[in-house]
Amino acid sequence: MNDDHLAESGMVLFELLIAMTLIVGSITVAHMVYSKLVMKAIQLEKSHAAWVHQKNQHEIALYLNRFKSQQPNNAPRSKR
Q: For 8, how many CA atoms within 13 A lie in the half-sphere containing its CB?
């Protein structure tokens, strides 16, 4: 009876070890996936910020050109 109890205890400990290994492995994989998603989100934010900056520069150039075209050409110029 004592040998059966030791064998059962050993088997239970072995099953716990496997279960804990699977849990830790799953958590590690989930963390790696999450890290890659965060890195991708950062890359997308950077590219979006660059696109917004380029769009703003383009709009500024358009408004400056429009402003220059509305200025009268015969306005007195300053002497240099």
A: 5
Gap between the Cα atoms of 48 and 53, Å rounded? 9
Sign of the Cα pseudo-torsion (73, 74, 76, 77, in order): positive
Distance separating alpha carbons of residues 16 and 7, to the nearest angstrom: 14
This prediction has a pTM of: 0.58
Handedness of CA 57, 62, 65, 68 (dihedral sign): negative
Single-letter code of the amino acid located at 50: A
Q: pLDDT of 44-59, one tens digit each?
A: 999 999 999 999 999 9
